[in-house]
Predict the structure.
Amino acid sequence: MDYSHRRHTRDTGRFPCAAGRSTGMRYHKGGHGAGGTSGGERGPHEVELHQNLLAANDRHAQVIRGLLRAHGVFSANLMSSPGAGKTALLEATLKRGLDGFVMGVIEGDIETTADADRIAPFGIQVVQVNTGPFGGDCHLAAPLVAGAIHQLDLHSLDVLVVENVGNLVCPAEFDIGEDAKVVLLSVTEGEDKPLKYPLMFHEASLALVTKTDLLPHLDVDLGTILANIRRVNPSARIIPLSARTGDGLDEWITWLVDGAKKARTAQTDD
Ligand SMILES: Nc1nc2c(ncn2[C@@H]2O[C@H](COP(=O)(O)OP(=O)(O)OP(=O)(O)O)[C@@H](O)[C@H]2O)c(=O)[nH]1
Ligand SMILES: [Mg+2]
């Protein structure tokens, strides 16, 4: 078999992303040279615009980071393929509670308010952002998140969870001012995904292997999934869990609560 097409991925280092579609451009983060997003060469103007757009994103991300720190809010950016169980995890988390800490949620999707509608009954602050009106980007960029944060009362929050647009590649390329990137991989997606889509697993400090209740019905080996995540990111914390049965939920909630405590301490120290 001819594997020569693999060179494109190696050459660009990171992966193609539809980011910037609203500007008529395709770009992706990296500084890995000027390799085109689909194998073509980038001209100097395209590279410059690419860099300017990412620099603008990072400036917004820094403003968000400063704002959240000043309010003592711990923030996590949940990223995964569509349907890996991000919203179900948030529902289970809110059902269980955060030991007195208060969580707010930003829901990111291309279209619909379906996920915010699922979170709203818990009576917490939730803002839905849609990328559809801005070109339908497959990820949240910092300016959009900044707009959502301005709709929240940060004084009354301890934790802010941003559920990114379902996509296993692009969201990892954009800093949105979060304290931690969290990747979810459901056991139904197969063992090889960390190796085939390494960027998100590489960038995340926490990996949640979701839907473990389904393992008895699948031909996948949890040990192999964990080993593949570790191959890409040996230092990532990994928590297997099931939003359905609650297995692993306590460990995830403890991670969130620890983050909230640290953010509060850091705010006091400033
Ligand atoms: N069996 C089982 N099903 C789950 C679990 N978590 C989520 N699901 C199901 O998986 C499907 C997708 O879950 P969502 O929470 O909507 O996934 P998502 O990642 O938020 O999806 P997008 O926002 O569209 O990217 C739903 O049918 C859930 O009921 C779990 O722990 N076990
Ligand atoms: Mg969702």
